[in-house]
Design a protein that fits this description.
alpha+beta; ten-stranded mixed sheet; about 475 residues; 16 helices; single chain; four-stranded antiparallel sheet
């Protein structure tokens, strides 16, 4: 079916967007540093292994790689940092997405669609635009916020793929392996990225973990080889963020759920390939780590993760309030207005956030061993758009009077170094010279997902969300 979308974009001030753009680069740097800090990962992961079987498996896989001293892969961090712009406290981080951080190509496509509506159907555009206008200024030129996510993500991946290829200087084209879910129906943004890589001379291959089992082997000097294909330079996981991605009963050993396919993932990390996401990256971008980072002050962030003072202050501005679950927290919440909070576990994707009185009911079900795997985040309440907005879902238009949005910013870092810095020349004309984090680098486009204010789940594929884009409002 057609993916749902808005007819007109979300207004944002230039200063606010550039601030998120630059600070997302700092977050990419931070998560890379956290992923390389063994003591910090141990502090984060060990307490949640009793309450979250999947992260227990990730932690055990990490320890196995550490023990064997075979982490040869080049960590390629393709991350989407998701924000909501609260009406009172401003933009705050909802979550990091370092594994299967998709839909960037759709972000570029909806920007292009909004540009088409604006240029070809200006009267309709202005009728449903949230920017103020009168009947006499419908031809006033607006500036949509450019989104080159397809080009930028592809360029970052291509550079890293060629880096690995050049290390070996062997025959054949550079190759990119996308690890996908079996029978996946959410594939179109994946294909858009693949096409962009193919245009850059890179051969793309799609396989599930099940298809990779017993088809991977080791070549010379740590080369990763795929049966029937040849050498692999980059591995990109669009699968692997839940147990179901690794479960296969006929291969699992007795009492060892997901053992075989997790071994396939570990095997890939033992080789010299660029890889997103590594097990380290997946752990470092977890809700648990987000909670720990929120509890640190700016000086602690500087000392622990080698951030500058400006970068640490930028991170603190974005992290918001995230609290661990303890007996005292539960007792306090029972007396609080729970509508001001969201309860989260470590799960990725839709369906893992709990609201309202369901928070209390869920907390009463947890044992103390489960507490560390859960956290509560202060609920963010963006200001709805000032005019009703047309949504198109399943090919049918509908009017939404209270649309709110989530802003995702993509970054790409290869071994901690920005692999792209896509800021077009026009943007440089408007840079805020007082923003010392602007050159943090790694920016690779954006994704806007909007939903009705009362809808609990904002996922485009699995919730009530719709694709959206941005237009500059006056500062």
């Amino acid at each position: 079916m057609h993916i749902p979308f808005t007819l007109t974009p979300l207004p944002i001030t230039r200063h606010r967007f550039q601030s998120l753009q630059s600070k997302a680069g700092v977050l990419g740097k931070l998560i890379h540093k956290a992923s390389q800090d063994d003591a910090f990962l141990k502090q984060a992961m060990e307490p949640i292994t009793e309450g979250d079987p999947f992260f227990k498996h990730l932690w055990e896989s990490h320890l196995k790689l550490q023990t064997q001293d075979t982490e040869r892969r080049l960590p390629l961090l393709i991350m989407r940092s998701d924000f909501m712009d609260d009406a009172t406290v401003g933009p705050k981080l909802i979550e990091f997405n370092a594994i299967a951080a998709g839909m960037g190509p759709f972000g570029q496509r909806i920007h292009e669609l909004h540009k088409y509506v604006y240029t070809q159907h200006p009267t309709t555009y202005h009728q449903f635009s949230a920017l103020p206008h009168t009947d006499t200024d419908t031809d006033t030129k607006l500036e949509l916020v450019q989104n080159k996510a397809i080009d930028s993500l592809a360029e970052g991946i291509a550079q890293t793929t060629l880096q690995i290829k050049n290390e070996f200087n062997d025959d054949g084209p550079p190759r990119f392996l996308m690890v996908v879910q079996p029978d996946e129906d959410n594939v179109y943004d994946q294909h858009l990225l693949e096409y962009a890589l193919q245009e850059r001379g890179i051969q793309t291959v799609r396989r599930s973990f099940r298809e990779l089992h017993d088809t991977l082997s080791s070549g010379e000097s740590g080369r990763l080889m795929l049966e029937g294909v040849g050498s692999i330079d980059t591995v990109y996981l669009r699968s692997g963020y839940s147990h179901c991605d690794f479960y296969l009963g006929d291969l699992d050993q007795k009492d060892q759920c997901c053992h075989s396919l997790l071994q396939t993932r570990i095997f890939m990390e033992k080789h010299r390939v660029a890889m997103n996401a590594t097990i380290r990256q997946q752990m470092a971008s977890s809700k648990r780590v987000q909670t720990l980072l929120s509890a640190m002050n700016a000086q602690e962030l500087c000392n622990k993760f080698e951030l500058t003072h400006e970068e640490a202050r930028a991170v603190k501005e974005l992290l918001g309030t995230n609290l661990p679950i303890t007996g005292d927290t539960i007792h306090w919440l029972e007396k609080e207005n729970v509508d001001n909070w969201v309860l989260k576990n470590q799960g990725e994707g839709g369906g893992h956030a709990i609201f309202g009185q369901d928070i209390i009911h869920k907390l009463q079900e947890l044992s103390p061993d489960d507490y560390a795997a859960w956290s509560i985040m202060q609920r963010l309440r963006p200001t709805p758009r000032s005019v009703p907005t047309v949504l198109v879902r399943k090919g049918e238009p509908q009017l939404c009077p209270d649309l709110i949005s989530e802003i995702g910013v993509f970054t790409v870092h290869a071994d901690g170094v920005p692999a792209t810095n896509l800021v077009d020349e026009h943007e440089h004309e408007h840079e805020d010279n007082n923003d010392n984090t602007h050159n943090a680098g790694g920016y690779a486009g954006y994704l806007i997902r909007s939903k009705p204010a009362l809808a609990p789940e904002g996922g485009v594929h699995s919730g009530m969300g719709v694709l959206d884009s941005l237009v500059y409002a006056s500062n």
